[in-house]
Design goal:
133 residues; mainly alpha; Protocatechuate 4,5-dioxygenase, Chain A; globular
Amino acid sequence: MVWKKHDYDDIPGTYVFDGERAHSSYALNKLFYSFNNVECRDEFNAAPAAYCDKFGLNEKQKKLVVEQQFLNILRAGTNIYYMAKFCIPRGVSVQDAGAAFQGISGDEFKAKLLKKRENLEQRLEREGGYWNG
């Protein structure tokens, strides 16, 4: 399949979930979506590599999942909402995943969020009720 180049393809650190990423990461997303069911989460927990094989992950994808490499899983094209289904049952909050995405500790990530909160009301007022922070 031939994919069209987009302006966002060259933005460093940007992992847009588009058709190309969805196509290449279908098996990953299907696996993570299965975690809607507790039985599937239990089956995965019992034998992670075998569960990955059941969904047809390639060796690279399987390694990312088994080693819980959250940022690289996102880079591989996983939908962030499906990835949350993987992270949260493992005791990794969305905040913890955000820290991992940035290569910092959970405490550093929390401090960054709190810093961004400073003067939020004034920024919202200045920007007409919308702030892209």
